[in-house]
Amino acid sequence: MIPLSHYLLLSAIIFGLGVVGVIISRNLIKLLMSVELMLNAANLVFITFARWYGDPGVHIFVFIVFVVAAAEAAVGLSLVIAVFRRKESVDVDILRLLKG
Amino acid sequence: MTDAFLTNLAFYVISFCVIAGGIFVVSSRNLFHSAVFLVFTLFSVAGIFVMLSAYLLAAIQVLVYVGAVAMLMIFGVMLTTQLSNVRIRYMNEQVWPALLICAGFLALLVYGLTDTPFATGNVAAPVEGAKAIGTLLMTKYVLPFEMVSVLLLAALVGAIVIAKKD
Questions:
Q1: pLDDT above 90 covers what percent of chain B?
Q2: Complex ipTM above 0.85?
């Protein structure tokens, strides 16, 4: 039996990779991909503890996280396409309209 | 004995796939390669879900993430970037400070996870089938279910409105 801590370590590593991707990437689509990685790490922790403590309600929570992630991806990518249509680029650093 | 060994082997191989795929997602210079490695990583995470005997959620992961979200990402890549003619920089100037801070954060996270005494003695969880989850979704958790479906509808309409040509 694989110990609980190995699952938790795996999801911590995925989450860390997602954080690195969000910080260092200049591309909006890559940023969205890193957010998906972080959401997956959170789901992995949920399912790990559901397996260890036997609570089926956690599965419902993960199900809802799936739906919210799908909504986030849809709205995020349509925003990326709208930005690209205006600026001809998806570089994060050119988006400084709100900067005073 | 050999069964436990195979289980261990499967877990570590899948974990290696997940971590390697994640590293390639973050570090790849080609955005399309990042998207393909994202598909690979999410598929491997579905494998971990199977090892945790969450079969329904593994199937949903493959359907929703690999089938829908990752395809959406690939469509986004193809619609926005000129993959061949523009030389785009994919990383900003703060790569090394960012890596340093994230390594510190990860160390803190690992310390917290390994140092916390979780009650790991009783791994007697019954396998939750689709029936149990469906019943819960329609009885106890029916309000979150309906709210999330309204959210999905709103996101769908909003995505169409935002992305259409004005």
A1: 34
A2: yes
Per the CB < 8 Å rule, is A30 touching B118? no
Token output for B127: 């396998």
CATH number of residue A70's parent domain? 1.10.287.3510
Segment (H or E) for A23:
helix A4-24
pTM of the model: 0.88
- B85 domain-assigned: no
* 3-state SS assignment for residue A59: helix
d(CA B53, CA B55): 6
Q: Residues of B93-122 as b/e, b for ≥16 C-beta within 10 angstroms? A: eeeeebeeebeeebeebbeebeeeeeeeee
Distance from CA of A99 to the nearest CA of B (A): 18
What DSSP state is assigned to residue A94?
A: G
